[in-house]
Amino acid sequence: MDDIVDLVSRSDEDLRALVVELEAEELEISRRRRLLHGKLDILRAELVMRLQHKHNQGEPVISADDVQRLSRILAGLGPGDDEPAGEAAPAAEDPEER
C-alpha cells in the first residue's frame, strides 16, 4: 500500500511495473482462494457423508446439546449470558428529562 501513496513522484514506467506486480499478486491470491474453497468443499462433503452414514445407521445426528446451543444462539444469547445480546437492562431515568 505504501507504493501507492506517492503516485505523483513515480515515473510512468514505475507505475506500469507496479500494476504488473499487483496484478500478479492478485492472480496468486485468487488462485489460493480457489484452492481454499475447493478444500472447504471437500471437507463439507465429507462431513455431510458422515452425517448421512450416521443417520442411515439409526444414530442421532443432532444431540440435545446441539439443540440447546442453537436455541441460545437464536435467542441472542452467548456463552454464559442470561439476557439476549443487545438487550441491556434499561438505563435509569434522568429526572431532568421530564
Spell out the blueprint of helices and strands:
Layout: H1 2-5, H2 12-56, H3 64-74
Characterise this structure.
It is a single chain. With 98 residues, this protein is mostly helical. The chain has one domain (2-77). Helix content is 61%, strand content 0%. It contains 3 helices and no strands. The longest helix has 45 residues, at 12-56. The chain is elongated, with a radius of gyration of 27 Å. The relative contact order is 0.04. The model has no long low-confidence stretch (mean pLDDT 84).
Overall 3D geometry? elongated
**How helix-rich are the residues, as a percent range?**
55-70%
Instruction: Quickly give the structural class.
Output: mainly alpha
Number of helices: 3
State the domain count.
1
Regions with little confidence, pLDDT below 50 for 5+ residues: none
Instruction: Give the integer mean of the pLDDT values.
Output: 84
Strand content: under 5%
Number of strands: 0
